Amino acid sequence: MLRSALAKVIDFVTDHNRLTLAGMVLLSAVVLAGIPMLDTESEAGANASAFEDIDRVQKANYVADHYDTGDDSNRTIKTVYVRQKDGDVLSKPSLLATLRYQRDLLHNDSVEAVLHDDGVVDIANIVATGLAGDPAASLDEQITALDDADPTAVEAQVESTLANQPQALRLLPDGHGPSNVTATDRRLLVALNASAVTGGEATGGETTTADRVDAALYDTAEDYSDSGVFVLNQFAYDEYNSHFFGEMVWLVLPFALVLILGVLAFTYRDLVDIVVGMVGVVLSVLWMFGLLGWLGVAAGLALIVPVVLVTGLSIDFGFHVFNRYREERAAGERPNSQDAGIREPMNRGVRLVATALVLVTVTAAIGFLSNVVNPLGQIRDLGVAITLGVIASLLIFVTVVPALKISIDGLLERVGWSRRKRALGHGRYLRPALSKTVTLARRGAPVVLAVAIVVGALGALAWTELDEESFQRSDGDVAEWKQQLPDPVGWETHPAAERLSHVQEVYQPATADDAIRERILLEDDVTADGTLADVQAGVETIERRGVLLDQPGVQSVTSPVTAMQAVAQRDDTFRAVFEDADRDTDGDGIPDRDLETVYDAFYEADSEVAGQVLERTDGEYRSMLVQLAVNADYADANEAVADLEAGASRMEGNGDRVATVAGSLGVNAAVLDAIVGGILQTMALALAAITLTMAVAFRAMHGSATLGLVVSLPIALVLGLVIGGMYLLSIPLTLLTALLMSLVIGLGVDYNIHVGDRFADERRAGKTTFEALTAAVTGTGGALLGSTLTSAGAFATLALVPDAQLQSFASIVVIALLTAFLVSLLVLPSLLVLWERYSPEAVTTESAVEGIPQD
Fold it and tell me: Transmembrane stretches, by residue range (predicted)?
């Protein structure tokens, strides 16, 4: 049924090539009309409901429902940084520069309208008001006092400020001592009214208040960049992203084009075929864009992934179409008509390869579409985008490319230019090299299979050893040789990435509001004797591990103990109850007994504060909450969560309570674990679906379901080798690399199908096992070699980009392509030999008239 329908389509394409081209031009115009509708800004988020069964997510939701966590602060802090690598940011010129920066910033209407009463906090202000002798001195008066002061007096005032104003140390790098009156880094904090900054949304092209404030902070900092002033807000990141994309295109594109065209020149050895093939590649990518636009699927910046993958797969399709056409023309008859000498070989060649391309498309789509169940919207959209691109490639390379090839070759041969070319794999040097894999299968198939199983198993075992990270942080370092390349290819560095890395390295968050707020929820018997002592012991465990924010004047822990101690200092009645509950025990200042009475008195003394750390429902105390300001970010999540879990375990005491890390870091780590676990399930389902599809397809096409099973087995080996490669190259499991694990299935199945299908084709034609294998690995194997060199080379150029995530992405795809190629030529032939030797099934033999053998 499938072969019959394809045969009719191919007959029409080869018999009516000009009509086919005209029709595809019209259809392409319709499809490409969807490109203007493409959503390139939307970044689909996660499906929150997909994570509701995760314990930490449930606990985080419980905290949100039952506690006032104090997140609704009336101010938001914007940070401005000052850095002078070879200078002193505590010198008079630097302090003056930031005072003038403040003056220019506060003259901005948007900033002035939302400025909080706390205003701007800067060492320069503290020093200048000290020099002016008036803590309430205006900004202009501060500038005048500092400008008029002698540098020696300024240095003395800085020394006094650091010694007597501990909060000033919060504005300096972590570990800066009060006796050190010089520094290369400092920061100033701009306090804004939170409700005014975050309220409202942009409409009708207008900008929000937050955008206008960020723009003022960024633009004013740019005016003072010579003094080392900078900000790291959305405007800085947008400029960096734009710069990064431009540099990436200029660095990668020339190398990729030279490499691709070089490989195409080697494999095709014909300019016309290169041009026709690239037309098919470009059309495939454009069709993908158009279909995404019509279907309303979000693209976003991550669209580079499907573009590169679809480019590689469509180049692969082109190799098979052209190579098989050349083989058929070389072996075919020579009719009188010049057009017939082109049309008939093209008809036979496309027929031979078409159902294999359909099978590749179906199985690859299974691998890619397995991501539609992923809770992350971006990953779902990527799977859909790649699938649409592969389908578009199939359509283009069985219609437009053959029709265009017939048209051009017919025209050139009518003017006397012979278009007969030798297929790759049949050359003097390559054919003997490829044939050696058949010799290996002939002499040692069982050994090859045993080695493959051992190597694949070892690679798969490395899965448990892979590091898990939310994302890979780039430090902004760029190799010197990349910067020294001639413009515009040479990489011009941008300071944003290096600045971000430096800031994260040298600073702790300036305030508890700036830090990530982690939470530990304790449930069950929270009134048992010793509960508060266990809570305090857990907090001390976390403190000893160094994960908490440690800034002068900043409270990094809010727990039932700290909250009660604060209320006891100002409420005599509660203090008496609080102390009485500890008086007859260990005298450590923490109540050990009669805790329900203590909690009741706590609520009576200050119910608002008590409600932030204790849950009382219907008079029953059901849980308590510990809030922690941590000195960590999402790149350090694993280590930070491990430290928090150690403290939570200590809070559980003897098992009377359950303590759960329920803050953003803990939830993030749990979600990543769920996604990674989901990837394993997705890969297993995709492998099962592909195996079943292959069995059914090979049964229908070649009369053997077991042959389809044998051809699908190497996919698991490719997965194992990719995982082993990730381990050896220290590539972590992130959301991106976890996605690629399922994409590897779509990449790994391609080569095996072509070799296995060609083998069955040759066996049906009456060749022996080893004759069929030789034809498969030299004919189809030659096309696979060209495809591998082109695609792997193109992806390898992405490793030039100084970005850890892109480098990991490129490395995984290159490993997948190379291993898939090697497995299809080294392992699959041995499997086919063993199948022929031990399987009760055999390939169905059909007449050449009734059945067209498939590639």
Answer: 248-268, 275-295, 301-322, 352-370, 382-404, 444-463, 674-698, 705-729, 735-753, 773-800, 812-835
